[in-house]
Amino acid sequence: MAFGVPAGQVLIMFILIALGWAAFRLHWIGQESLKGMTNLLLYLVSPSVTILAFQRPFDADRLRMMGIVFVVDLAAFALTIGIANLLFNRQLVPDADTRTTLRFGTVYSNAGFIGIPLAQAILGNDGVFYTVAFIAAFTVMVWTHGASLFGHDGEALAAKLRRVALNPGIVSIVVALPLFLFSVSLPSPVSDVLGYLASMNTPLSMVVVGVNLAAFSLRTVFSDRLVWLGTFARNVLVPAVFIALLGPVPIDPVARLAIVISVSAPVGAFLVIFSVRHDRDTQFATRLLCLSTLASVVTLPAALAAATALWGSA
Fold first, then answer.
1. What whole-number distance in Å separates Cα of residue 137 and Cα of residue 227?
2. Domain range enclosing 164
3. Rounded CA separation 39/260 (Å)
4. What is the DSSP string of 260-299?
5. Is 202 in a helix, a strand, or coil?
6. Region 18-32 average pLDDT
7. What is the Cα 222 distance to its own chain's centre?
8. pLDDT (tens digit, 9 = 90+) per residue, 87-129?
9. What is the mean pLDDT of residues 29-55?
10. CATH code at 192?
11. How far is CA 50 from CA 72, 116, 185, 266, in A?
């Protein structure tokens, strides 16, 4: 895979981000519209992409590979948590809130809004199929370990487990997996509707990112040393570690690249969501999200180019 292929796809996404940024600045889109678009993505568009990715005849080898990828993804999160804790220690980052933000941002990427569209564009439905395994592992980890980073809010364990189980990403997998296991093809009206919704994933996701970025001054983003360090950890260090480690792993090359796309995506939106929910410093969290997203126009294609150069083409 040539560098220009992922670079071109990411460039297209950043043009869409720029359109979202402009739409917010021109007051075409407001905060209420942003909330509505985000809900549309979470509850309709992203689940449609997942369900369509599973619309294929049952293949035992592919199912086994997806299970292996899920386990690899969980191991990836465990390793990344260790990297984040080691890098952002108390000596380097004395402030507890800032330390939590940097650790969370290092571990949890924007694999849903950026990883899935990029996997879809570069690797097709096979890439989405394996990226969904990452999203499943992500959902479990972000609502357990990720939430615990911000402290306990008094929510009972049963309620936390219910929140994980009823997440739209998990629900869509629960719906899609039996269709794959029993080779069930959805009838034309239903599959057509899902197709129309799924086609909105990339443009709508990128517009939402652009609208979020439009609310902040780039001057404050670029002048924060810790924001740069957090961006380096998320965009460069973590992908480099996994490119080195995944090469010898005997899995489908498409699955391996799908994992790289997921771990190379910029800081995830959950960082800001959890910061708001727990009354943390949302300004620092959003600056980190902003710079990481902007930097990924270079770092994400570079990670994919490095991976394919080391491993060979998928």
1. 26
2. 4-311
3. 27
4. HHHHHS-B-THHHHHHHHTT--HHHHHHHHHHHHHHHHHH
5. helix
6. 89
7. 23
8. 999 989 999 889 999 999 999 998 877 787 788 778 887 888 8
9. 82
10. 1.20.1530.20
11. 20, 9, 14, 21
Type of residue numbered 276: V
Cβ count within 10 A of residue 94: 9
Per the model's pLDDT, the better-predicted residue between 116 and 254 turns out to be 254
Cα angle 13-285-169, degrees, rounded to a multiple of 5: 60
Number of domains in the chain: 1
Question: What pairs with residue 109 in β-bridges?
Answer: 267
Q: Would residue 50 be called left, alpha or beta, if left means φ above 0 and alpha means ψ between -120 and 50 degrees? A: alpha
Cα end-to-end distance, the chain, whole Å: 7
**Residues 29, 35, 40, 46: is their CA dihedral positive or negative?**
positive
Structure tokens, 142: 């972000």
Torsion sign over Cα 212, 301, 251, 179 = positive
Measured distance CA(81)–CA(7) in Å, rounded? 28
Average pLDDT for the chain: 83
**pLDDT in the model for residue 153:** 54
DSSP string for 66-99: HHHHHHHHHHHHHHHHHHHHHHS-TTT---HHHH
